[in-house]
Design a protein that fits this description.
It is a single chain. The chain has about 190 residues and is α/β, with parallel strands linked by helices. The chain is about 30% helix and about 30% strand. The strands form two sheets. A six-stranded mixed beta sheet has the order 5-6-7-3-8-9, sandwiched between helices. Strands 2-1-4 form a three-stranded antiparallel beta sheet.
């Protein structure tokens, strides 16, 4: 569970958002939508305890795995990135096969396309995640088929254990009905749309 109480973000003279009280419930999936510059990524980094733009109380009772918009892959191979998370060889092999990158695991990440790089980062995030997984624009460079498959994999991960929490920030046309909740920042407020 992640709780936000009296959370305010000001950027220069502009208030990005003010959240009196909001709880991301364990055992739920959230699609986080909103226009560019509304503060979605800023709020996520504040949840992680980074940055100094946000004031207020943010608490979490779980370990959070975060995949930022600007992904980082270690400058070796996809396989080297998976080895960072020990003991998951069969899992990453299946995920790489499902997402169509199993033949690329020994290639340098420098020669991969943007969509391929996102797939490797996504797989590494899934391997790392235990309780809470936050994905910021994780599918933006993937083709539609890969995006839909990766979304299904993420939602399956969330449902595998009762207390898992999944938050996906996206501007893509994701099926809102697949999520337990859809939220947005609008008029400087965090709103639950469903």
């Amino acid at each position: 569970m992640i709780e936000l109480n009296n959370v305010v973000c000001k950027l220069r003279d502009r208030e990005l958002f003010k959240i009196e009280k909001f709880t991301f419930e364990d055992g739920s999936s959230y699609l986080f939508k909103g226009r560019n510059g509304s503060g979605k990524s800023t709020l996520l980094t504040a949840i992680l305890g980074y940055g100094n733009l946000v004031q207020g109380k943010i608490s979490s009772d779980q370990k959070i795995t975060y995949q930022p918009q600007q992904i980082y892959l270690y400058k070796k191979t996809g396989l080297d990135n998976f080895k960072l998370v020990q003991g998951h060889e069969k899992v990453w092999q299946k995920l790489a096969q499902d997402l169509g990158v199993s033949s690329l695991v020994n290639r340098s990440v420098d020669v991969l396309s943007g969509g391929e790089r996102q797939k490797f980062a996504f797989i590494r995030s899934l391997l790392s995640a235990k309780e809470t997984l936050i994905l910021d624009e994780p599918f933006s460079q993937m083709d539609v088929k890969s995006r839909d498959l990766a979304l299904a994999i993420a939602l399956d991960w969330q449902k595998e254990a009762d207390k898992r929490l999944l938050i996906i920030v996206s501007h893509d046309s994701l099926d809102e009905g697949l999520f337990d909740h859809v939220i947005t920042i609008e008029n400087q407020k965090l709103l639950k749309l469903s």
